[in-house]
Amino acid sequence: MDKKLKVGILGATGMVGQRFIVLLENHPWFEVVAVAASPRSAGKSYQEAVEGRWKMDTPIPEAVKDLKLLNVNEVEEVASQVDFVFSAVDMSKDEIKKIEEAYAKTETPVVSNNSAHRWTPDVPMIIPEINPEATDVIKYQKERLGTKRGFIAVKPNCSIQSYTPVLTAWKEFEPYEVVATTYQAISGAGKTFKDWPEMQGNIIPFISGEEEKSEKEPLKVWGHVDDEKKEIVAADAPLITTQCIRVPVLYGHTAAVFVKFRKNPTKEQLIEKLAAFSGEPQKLQLPNAPKQFIQYLEEDDRPQVSKDVYYENGFGVSVGRLREDTVYDWKFVGLSHNTVRGAAGGAVLCAELLTAKKFITAK
User: Fold this and answer.
1) Any catalytic annotation for residue 117?
2) Starting at the edge strand that comes first in sequence, how are the strands of the sheet with 330-336 ordered?
3) Domain boundaries along the sequence of the chain
4) Which residue of the set 117, 244, 253, 337 is catalytic?
């Protein structure tokens, strides 16, 4: 790419916004030129705005420290400075829907980490290795919005990343019933232990809205574009039931998963499919594409958050403890980084895919 695309980050001061800032430092294709947040932060430098609440392990990148925060509600002003935006705004769902469409209508593509548009029928919900063809629906969304280059694309919930790629790798064996319990890090709530000391040594067996997302969103990811309806139609199988539990871990969502198959794979076949699974990001050699998307670990005590959460810089998925079950056919444990693969990083990889496919271009 001759010249880097100019990027804006909406909701730049929150935890996911901060992760975007860190991931985009020295990105070969993208350069952060605009940061936007709530009106109360507007006018401050980025460094001033996040003082005392910078949650990342690494320092604030020098290139953004002095960027002046824009008011996220001043859509035209922000859009005029960028080629596309990442959205991580903290608003109500209705407000998010409205503001993301407003940006798209300024002919500014929006790649969103938010859940508001995940079930908008003509908005693609993308895990780049699994359903790059979902981008085919964008032409119908542009028709509806009346745009030439503006559109919205979203990434799915962080909770599904540690098992949906695994089930996709095993698609030919026809998984039809899945039970998944996710053990989710506190950063998924935008918190650190400093913010949430009561999570030390604690488990909370409820995360609002998470179980519905964990059961339904994989079905949209596995869906197809219906050209008559001009929308994505979700798959109707497998049947997934989940429980989502908050645990005292900073980064990393772990899933304990049980699967029934219509066909009868061997353990060797299942592991072979995991190792061989790749997609468009690997084929296109996108900047953040993990070389090996899914790794299988033979040790009985893996995957572990402390050892495996940053596998492939947090863009990969780790799987272990694959064994036959007495009630279901097979069971396994999966692990993914919830703010890299599961949030900001998944959106960055999605933007890389959209750029490689010419959906995102310089204005």
Assistant:
1) no
2) 239-246, 175-184, 253-261, 330-336, 317-324, 294-297
3) 5-157+344-356, 159-337
4) 253
What CATH number labels 159-337?
3.30.360.10
**Catalytic residue of the set 117, 158, 244, 337:** 158
Per-residue pLDDT, 96: 98
For the chain, give the mean pLDDT: 97
Q: Which amino acid is at 359?
A: F
Which CA distances in Å does 47 have to 33, 130, 264, 345? Answer: 15, 37, 56, 22
Residue 2 has pLDDT above 80, yes or no: no
- Region 5-157+344-356: CATH code: 3.40.50.720
For the stretch 157-209, pLDDT in tens is 999 999 999 999 999 999 999 999 999 999 999 999 999 999 999 999 999 99
**Reported pTM:** 0.97
What secondary structure letter does DSSP report for 272?
A: H
Q: Does 244 participate in catalysis according to the annotation?
A: no
φ, ψ for residue 44, nearest 5 deg: -80, 160
